[in-house]
Write a structure and sequence with these properties.
With 165 residues, the chain is an alpha+beta fold. The chain contains three helices and nine strands, in the order αββββαβββαββ.
Length: 165
């Protein structure tokens, strides 16, 4: 079985987002109250008392710029939580962050040209990693799929990216 990797937002991109986000707004850090916000820099939930920020991020735009394509109308930006200062990145835990039984996730497929090729709605079962593995295997069985985005259904937020192995 192929192992897929959940990719956090890259450190260089995070550095820029902590200054000005993808919507052109200045970063405004705050101290997390209760904790539990999904951090896209280290792919874990925040803890009470941590300094975090909510910034606008355009994941497909960033990927497309890196590979020299134009996402066109598929370019979208949305809110993501990140640490307000540089962090150490992912430190382990589950293979796929923010996955627990009973939550809904969308696995959205993109071509090498940055076009949406479809997606799949997942109601994660008691074995969420296995369900996500199957969805990624299904997506990458199509040779046209270059990457997938995993998104939260309840807010539509980008959670992380998985690229073709």
């Amino acid at each position: 079985m192929t192992t897929y990797t959940a990719r956090p937002i890259e450190p260089g991109v995070l550095k820029g987002l902590r200054d000005v986000d993808d919507a052109g707004r200045a970063c405004v850090p705050f101290v997390e109250g209760e904790g539990g916000s999904p951090l896209r820099c280290c792919l874990r939930r925040s803890e009470s008392g941590e300094r975090i920020a909510l910034v606008s991020y355009a994941p497909l735009r960033r990927w497309a710029a890196g590979v020299g394509v134009e996402p066109g109308a598929y370019d979208e930006q949305g809110p993501v939580f990140v640490h307000a200062e540089e962090c150490g990145g992912p430190v382990g835990g589950g293979r796929y962050p923010f996955a627990r039984p009973g939550v809904l996730r969308t696995v959205r497929r993109y071509s090498a040209q940055g076009c949406i090729l479809g997606g799949r709605l997942l109601d994660l079962p008691s074995t969420p990693d296995e369900s996500l593995d199957a969805a990624f295997s299904e997506a990458f069985a199509d040779p046209e799929v270059a990457l997938v985005h995993v998104r939260a259904v309840e807010y539509g937020c980008f959670l992380y990216e998985v690229r073709r192995p």
